[in-house]
Every structure is written in structure tokens, then in C-alpha cells.
Amino acid sequence: MPEIPGEIMSEPVVTRFAPSPTGYLHIGGGRTALFNWLYAKRHGGKMLLRIEDTDRERSTPAAIEAILDGLKWLGLEWDGDAIYQFARAERHREVAKEMLAKGCAYKCFATPEELEAMREKAKAEGKPMRYDGRWRDRSAADIAEAEAKGLKPVIRLKAPQQGETVIDDLVQGRVTWANENLDDLVLLRSDGNPTYMLAVVVDDHDMAVTHVIRGDDHLTNAARQSQIYEAMGWKIPAFAHIPLIHGSDGAKLSKRHGALGVEAYRAMGYLPEALRNYLVRLGWSHGDQEIFSTEEMVSLFDLKNVGRSPARFDFAKLENLNGHYMRQTSDEALMAAIDVLLPHIEGGPELAERLTPERRAQWIKAMPGLKERAKTLLELVDGARFIDAARPLALDEKAKDILAKGGAVLGPLLARLESLPEWSVEALEGAVRAEAEAQGVKLGALAQPLRAALTGRSTSPGIFDVFVVLGREESLARIRDQVS
RNA sequence: GCUCCCAUCGUCUAGAGGCCUAGGACACCCGCCUCUCACGUGGGUAACAGGGGUUCGAAUCCCCUUGGGAGCGCCA
């Protein structure tokens, strides 16, 4: 366990990621999970996973699956089994009853209409919209009377009315609320089910969570939750509210600008390590360093260097980072990443079927030239299309143009190549250069028509590499197709 | 409306009173390299939201304004 100066290591660090399965794992959730994971790893602790599925209407098994799948793809494995919040409802009820018994909670029979009227009134008076506490100090007789009428109460927290509630947030600093602005929140609904506010506190306590790292949108919840901890006499965990991620236009993240499930990033051809690196730099920094291996992130990550202002999602930077990681990845590993990707993209399964051992060998051989020209795996796959393109090749517009203008050089070139004793980059380059010299033209005047003939395009990896990847027979055949 | 949070290049950020003529990265522009496109490499454009303080000195501390964001449910 690493020694952390200034921190007491008597208690093992426990963080948790607590998504609600009402949709996919979006990019902001992914970053929250990453920060929790890094913090836990950094301190030799654990990151737990809790599925907040108490909203039975909106929670779906498919969403749960998508979240687990997304986390695994991102490489953020949690410790132990995932905990399902709904399964713990009985314990939440118990705690609510206990609070009732202790006198720090009370039954409230206010109707939805009454509540609505309170909000209207508060709005009209320019006051905070809050419950007015009308059942807070009712007599036992009043309560008995309401119950006799068959009314079902909610249980509300008897929150402090004076003083302030303070949290020392590890990211946002000290945040203070006047208690008069906080009302008596509902702990247990009239149908006997716990509210989120209660469930979170009980679960975090029972799970021995020491650090609650979550989105900034929960900052105000922290005040109310700390009141529940106080009421129960439980130790309040450290809070760290990290700023939200916005879209490229500064507005709330929508599907248009990146609020996609992480599986969408997989389908767009991003590498999980690149996404992790991109995400960790959104909000967190370590001086001027931009590139972090996972090991470096783990050893360097801290909450102190997480910024307090929201960040915008920028695809251009993600792409750049992804390109960087692709270039650093071995040819074999990239091939493996493509294998993972193919089932998730259009036309991928068909392509996978065509990947015979021979084809794979060609891909691997082409990989060095391919990977430095691609920013995503999708581009990599696209760049490799020439490998198994069917003859005669379909030419794109630019390739057609090149051949129309300079295709005449191919005839004499073909003769020279056909008599080449050895099919290597060196031999091919020597031959083509010699031919260029013989024709009194620059190398480019021959390379471009060759590229068009061999790949059907105007851009490709180095032309001599293309020759070698394709092999003698296929290369010569493709050139002949264009000569005749 | 009320409460809370935030504010450095287009974007991500460094900066914790003098080291700042505000640094790095992405993007963009101009070169070099070169068989194309990339990669690599050299250079360039570009920011402390505004106004008041505090201080010998402020991007850094305080206040106000403005601008963003979040929350205000018997949703999570």
C-alpha cells in the first residue's frame, strides 16, 4: 500500500460507482467511474458497484447489462459483486423506522395538493420552495386520527431548522447551507418504499464507503444526506463532487455531442486506454503531462488536482489521443482490437468472415503503414480495404483522375516489374526509381498511378509496402487491369 | 423565483502574490521531411469576463456585476 503523506491510513479506502440503470453508461458516468476506480486503486482500496434500480418504472435489465459491459470494456473492474439497491429496500425501511423511533423523523400526512400549494405560495413570495413542516410537531392524537381515516403517511426527516449544514468537499472546498433553506425531506414514501436520499445514505454506510466521488449535480444532495448521517449518528464519508462534462457548445451534454453510451465509443473505433486518458484529463491534471499510462494514472491521481469548473467534450482531442495510442500499439494487439470491434460495426461480421489466416497475415504486414495514418480503428479498417478489394478494382474519383492523366507510365513500368527477380521493398523501390529515371520523371509521377492501380485510391501506405502486402501476383494483375 | 457551484487561448489545462513578456496539449495557419496521405519536426495566431478594493506588487486574496452550470419531487 502506498504511503500517502498527510493522510491517515488507518481506514481502507472504499469508493463506489452508483449508476441508475435507466439508460446506457454515458461518458460523464464513465469518467465518474474512472475517478472512483483511480482513487481506490491509488490508495490500495476498493471500488464497489451499486446499481440504483429503485426506480422500477425506468430501470431495465438491458441498461444494467449495458453499464456492466461498458465498465468492463473501459477496463474499470469493480470489487466484489454488484449490489442492487432495490434488494435492500427492507433495510432502508428499518432505518426509517429507527429514525421514527428515535424521534429524528416523523409521519407526514400532507397531500400532494397541499404540497403543490406550498410550492405555489413560496414561488409567489420569492422564497425557496420547501415543505413547511406542518406535520413536524403534531400530537399523537392528530396522527392517530389521520391513520384512523386510513391515510398513508410519508416519513420525513426532522431536519435542523437553525444553524448551518457544512460539507468540506474534497474538490469544491467548504460549502455551507443555512438550514432554514433546507426542508424536511421524505425518507419513506407513503407506499413504504425508501427514497433515493435515504437509500444512498444507508447503502453507503452499510457498504463502509469512505469516499463519495460523484457528479457535481449531487452537491446539494450532499447537504441533505449529511443531515441523515447526523440523525443516525453515522460517520459522514468524504465527499468529492466533480464538475460535469458539457457538450462542445457548452450546453448540457446531449446525444449530439458525446452523451453516448461508452459502447458507442467502442463502435466509433476508440481504444479504451485512449478514452481513459482523455477522460482523466477532463478535470484532472498533473502539471503539463498529457499522456498517462494506466499505471501512471493510478500512481499519480489525486482529488486535490481535480478542477472545479466544468469541461467541454472535444472529439478532436480524443481522436488525436486515440491516434497516439494506436501508433503505440503493437500490430498484433491492433488486430485483436479490430476483432473485438468488428461485431459492433456495420459490415463488420462479413469482414470478419473474410479474414482468413492468409488475410490476417496481410493485415499484420500492412499494419505499420496503416496505423500511423488512422486516428480510429474505423479508419484503420477503411485504410485496409485495398487488401481484399476484388479485381478489377473500383476506383474512386481521384484515382480515376490520376490514371487518366498519368496512367501511361504504367506500361513500361509493368514490363520492368514483371522481370523483377525479387519482390521486396528494396528491390521494388530500386526498380521504380530506375524507371522514373529512365522516363525522366520524378518518383511521384510513377508512384501515384501505381497507388491508384493497386489500391483504387489516391492515398495509401507507402507504395512499396503496398506491393509487398499484396504480393507479386496480385500486384501485377492489378496493374495489368489498368494498362489494358 | 430560491439555494449552491463555477469563470485563464476556440477546446482541455498549468499557474496556489513577485519565477508570467501568462506555459503545455488539441485544433487552426505557415514551413521542413516526402511516392500520396499521414507520422515526425520547426515556427505562428490565440486567453487571465468586467469593475472596484487589499498589497510595494494580483491571473493568483476580498467584494460587486455579468455570464455559465446544477439543484429545488412521495425521480435517481
Report on the architecture of this protein.
The protein has helices at 27-42, 61-74, 89-102, 112-125, 140-148, 196-206, 219-232, 262-267, 272-280, 294-300, 315-328, 331-341, 348-354, 357-371, 377-383, 397-406, 410-418, 425-439, 443-455, 463-470, 472-483; strands at 14-17, 46-51, 83-84, 105-108, 154-157, 164-169, 173-178, 186-188, 211-215, 238-242, 245-246, 311-312. With 484 residues, it is mainly α. Strands 1-2-3 form a three-stranded parallel β-sheet. The model is unreliable at 1-8 (pLDDT under 50).
Low-confidence regions: 1-8
Number of strands: 12
Q: Give the spatial strand order of the biggest sheet.
A: 1-2-3
Q: Could you give the distance between the termini?
A: 71 Å
Q: Which range does the strand content fall in? A: 5-15%
If helices are DSSP runs of H or I spanning 4 or more residues, what is the number of helices? 21
Integer average pLDDT: 92
The assigned structural class equals mainly alpha
Proportion of residues in helical segments:
40-55%
Q: Overall 3D geometry? A: elongated
Main sheet attributes: strand count, strand direction, barrel closure: 3 strands, parallel
